[in-house]
Amino acid sequence: MVGIIDLEVAFPAGRRTVREMHELSGRPVADILAWTHCPEIPVFGPDEQAWELQADIARKVLDRAGVDPSEVGQVIVGGGGDWDRPSWSPAAKIAAELGVTRAHCFEVLNFCSSSSAALQVASDAITLGRTRYALLLFGERVARSIDYTDPESVSLFNVGDAAAAVLLGPDDVRFDLLHTQTRSEPTWSDFLSGEIDGDRMVIRLRGRRRGISALYLERYQDLVREALHTLGLTPDDVDHFVINQVDRRMHERLLDSLGIPARRSVFNYHRLGHMSSTDPFIGLCDLRDAGRLGDGDLVLLATSGFGFSWGVTVLRHQA
């Protein structure tokens, strides 16, 4: 059974405070806190490199698992393309730093749903015998694409930076990867997009099209039920529900609609913003570090990203 052997997350030293967001945008602090839920967001500082933080925790994961870098056949970096440098492969750079010399190194761009997409790509490769181990890395400089001077972008002010490293393989796994289900709604592809503003790219909301909240809820409901049905399971079987920390209100509505109690989910809104594609692994590490995972527990990782795309991954914890 393919699964997650080990994983780790880390945060940059930089911070963007709500007070700074208020001063730059002119939005009331209360308006901003309605989205961030916390007084500051982790962001990469000007002297920090995302790839270095990813490499540091990747090395820890490989060392803990006792996997030699030469055994890794895939190195995948997931995200939306906000790398430390343009037109560049962070996967290859990190592989070189780690001494991974026999792997295919590439990027998976599915924005904040890249975690689901990368898990699917890597697990398929291992199942088909194309590689024994795959190293998945997440974490980019998304916060620098947020225009804090634009008061209409307040719903994006909760976006921050973090890093995650996940090792997949067939042996000694901590989480069996039972199934991943993904889907996109291409008619919403232009709702959010980037534009060049001076010497950087910034993310812009394109209008106020109605229905995004209802669409999010519906797609998540569909994917959760379909993924569980494939395995002969129902929402009642879910022990832990981990979702991207984008919108707490939608998170709570989704749990209620699925009949999953809030106590079975992870809420990080009070201490972190939305850490892009690293969110589900932050939640998974929180469950692990808090001792909340029991043998055989069923864990759902739910993601969404620009495009728009959604993904649900079903895991079974092995103590």
Keywords:
319 residues, alpha+beta, Peroxisomal Thiolase, Chain A, domain 1, 9-stranded mixed beta sheet, two-stranded antiparallel sheet, 26% strand
Task: Explain the overall architecture.
There is one protein chain. Helix content is 30%, strand content 26%. The chain has helices spanning 18-25, 29-36, 50-65, 90-98, 114-127, 212-230, 248-258, 279-289, and strands spanning 3-10, 15-17, 40-42, 72-79, 104-109, 133-138, 163-169, 175-184, 192-197, 200-205, 240-243, 298-305, 309-317. Strand 9 and strand 10 form a beta hairpin. The two termini are 15 Å apart. The mean pLDDT is 95.
How are the SSEs placed, and which strands pair?
Layout: E1 3-10, E2 15-17, H1 18-25, H2 29-36, E3 40-42, H3 50-65, E4 72-79, H4 90-98, E5 104-109, H5 114-127, E6 133-138, E7 163-169, E8 175-184, E9 192-197, E10 200-205, H6 212-230, E11 240-243, H7 248-258, H8 279-289, E12 298-305, E13 309-317
Parallel strand pairs: 4-5, 4-6, 11-12
Antiparallel strand pairs: 1-7, 1-8, 2-3, 6-7, 8-13, 9-10, 12-13
